[in-house]
Amino acid sequence: MFIKDAFLKKETTLSFEIFPPKNLDNIFNTIQELKKFNPDFISITYGAGGSSKDRTVEIASTIKNNYGIEALAHLTCAASTKEEIEEIINKLKQSKIENILALRGDIPEGFIQGKEYPYRYAKDLIWKLKEDANLCIAAAAYPEGHNECKNLDNGVRYLKEKVDEGADLLITQLFFDNNNFFEFKEKLYQYNIKVPVVTGIMPAVNKALIEKIQKLSGFVLPDKVKSFMSKYEYNEDDLKKAGIEYASYQMEELLKNKVEGIHLYTMNKHDIVKNILDNVSFK
């Protein structure tokens, strides 16, 4: 099933993101627990190279074919050759994976973009996927801009290019200020972007991880979140409790405003997901 069809049936979709761990047994236990929440899909992050790519395909296949949950496989392109991209696409198709999150990916240090690497941007990969395969394509959105593009209007114009090339839905970078997302959504309307937008939420239960991602991507970290992360930096239980409480508040407000989807970045912690969903009136 194409993920885009889920938005025709539900007011707000629920989905999760997981990443390939070194021990695959652990992730399959996590998937079994996440299945209890009836997600509309689970996305699997994509490693920079080697066996990590194969693990992404394997996990996506297991989610789809063993657990009966739609899988959204991440696929990066900037440092990949045409042959490498085609190989991954064929593996996904063989595993009956119909949904892909098309990403540029990080540029390796010292990398030189040559003609053997034809996919410089996510929009180029989207074009390739739409040309070669019958797939549902998701693309990344940045409600508060990105370190590489702080001008939000420029960012939305680039996003429009992804949609024009064939992106069927958008999934946002994590954010902690819902008002910034609501303003971003209004801007999408101004640019005539009408595909479903899924809001990415990550509970702030790991200070080092949140600060690392913030440094890389440039999302806004509100004073309230900074405050409780600093206050409970050395108290794991209290930080977890505060992070779950804040994520629950975010989700409740988003649900009241009838967002099209909520995508929880789980960090492979199904217990945190359960605690959050116990707090919110998700239907």
What share of residues are in beta strands? 5-15%
Helix content: 40-55%
Number of spatially distinct domains: 1
Q: Over all CA atoms, what is the radius of gyration?
A: 18 Å
Largest sheet: 8 strands, parallel, barrel
Neighbour order of strands in the largest sheet? 1-2-3-4-5-6-7-8
Topology:
Elements: E1 13-18, H1 24-35, E2 41-44, H2 51-65, E3 71-76, H3 82-94, E4 99-103, H4 122-132, E5 136-141, H5 152-165, E6 169-172, H6 178-190, E7 197-201, H7 207-217, H8 223-231, H9 236-256, E8 261-265, H10 270-279
Parallel strand pairs: 1-2, 1-8, 2-3, 3-4, 4-5, 5-6, 6-7, 7-8
Helix pairs in contact: 1-2, 4-5, 8-9, 9-10
Catalytic activity: (6S)-5-methyl-5,6,7,8-tetrahydrofolate + NAD(+) = (6R)-5,10-methylene-5,6,7,8-tetrahydrofolate + NADH + H(+)
Family: Belongs to the methylenetetrahydrofolate reductase family.
Enzyme class: oxidoreductase
Q: Can you give a write-up of this model?
A:
GO terms for molecular function: FAD binding; methylenetetrahydrofolate reductase (NADH) activity. It catalyses: (6S)-5-methyl-5,6,7,8-tetrahydrofolate + NAD(+) = (6R)-5,10-methylene-5,6,7,8-tetrahydrofolate + NADH + H(+). Belongs to the methylenetetrahydrofolate reductase family. InterPro entries: FAD-linked_oxidoreductase-like, Mehydrof_redctse-like, MTHF_reductase_bac. Pfam families: MTHFR (PF02219). The protein is of the alpha/beta class and 283 residues long. The protein has one domain (3-279): TIM Barrel. Helix content is 46%, strand content 14%. It is built from 10 helices and 8 strands. It has helices spanning 24-35, 51-65, 82-94, 122-132, 152-165, 178-190, 207-217, 223-231, 236-256, 270-279, and strands at 13-18, 41-44, 71-76, 99-103, 136-141, 169-172, 197-201, 261-265. Strands 1-2-3-4-5-6-7-8 form an 8-stranded parallel β-barrel, surrounded by 5 helices. Helix 1 (24-35) packs parallel to helix 2, helix 4 runs parallel beside helix 5 and helix 9 (236-256) crosses helix 10 (270-279). The protein is globular and about 50 Å long. The model has no long low-confidence stretch (mean pLDDT 90).
